[in-house]
Specification:
The protein has 234 residues and is mainly alpha-helical. The protein folds into 2 domains: 1-56, no CATH class; 57-225, ADP-ribosylglycohydrolase fold. It has 9 helices and no strands. Helix 3 runs antiparallel to helix 4 (78-88) and helix 8 (169-188) packs across helix 9.
Length: 234
């Protein structure tokens, strides 16, 4: 079990570092610039050059914050950790102020009320966008939640870790679903069974905050065939 949890953390960081190679590229651009993807053959531009080759991005930085919050030996809240990292980075890693942060997280953290009432701020800013902002900045930090031992804990923590900056129901569902998927993969190993189990929980009333329709974009992700509905917001 320990090795599987290590795999989640290292897989998150490695996938983040390699994924930077193609971030914000179209499929045609990826085909044009890459025959294969390694740390060393990364295309350099104003975005990618923010990080050295092989370095993870803010995605894994925030995963570390979530892991530290689960242990919580320093008595600070997740919003405290996010705020301090945003302005100061990780001094122990020699990494300065948080880099690559999305607009949603930036707006929420910079709101004067964030440290006191982060969830209220997140909800208010989401509603100011006419409830149309479904960016993926919440799901990128939640993989470790799937390593918790209890399904109810996973649902609660995944929702909280997402909605502290991303109040969108779609974002929160995604964080809960991916965390449950990781949980079932750790305990089952079968991709097909894990997807079915995670989706059954989400559709079976175990996730009360979400009210999904059978024909919604989310439930029409035919993951068995590795074909994602193109209408799902990234």
């Amino acid at each position: 079990m320990n090795n599987k949890i290590y795999g989640v953390v290292f897989g998150h960081a490695i996938g983040d570092a390699l994924g930077l190679n193609t971030e914000f590229m179209t499929k045609d651009q990826v085909i044009k610039y890459y025959k294969n993807i390694t740390y060393e053959n990364r295309i350099e531009d104003s975005h990618r050059s923010t990080w050295t080759k092989g370095e993870w991005t803010d995605d894994t930085d925030q995963l570390i914050l979530v892991m530290r919050n689960l242990v919580n030996k320093d008595g600070t809240t997740l919003q405290d950790k996010l705020y301090n990292w945003y302005w100061n980075g990780f001094k122990e890693f020699g990494i300065g102020r948080g880099r690559g942060i999305g607009n949603t997280i930036r707006r929420v953290i910079n709101d004067p009320g964030f440290l006191k009432n982060p969830y209220d701020v997140s909800k208010e800013l989401f509603e100011l966008t006419d409830s149309s902002n479904h960016s993926n900045g919440g799901v990128m930090r939640t993989s470790i939640i799937g390593c918790l031992p209890d399904i109810n804990q996973i649902i609660e923590h995944a929702d909280n870790v997402c909605s502290i900056t991303h109040y969108s129901q779609r974002c929160r569902f995604t964080c809960v679903f991916i965390s449950l998927l990781i949980y079932f993969l750790i305990h089952d190993n079968s991709i097909r069974n894990s997807i079915s189990n995670a989706m059954d929980l989400c559709k079976g009333g175990k996730v009360p905050v979400f009210h999904l329709k059978e024909e919604s974009h989310t439930t029409r992700c035919w993951l068995y065939d590795k074909e994602l509905d193109s209408k799902i917001s990234s």
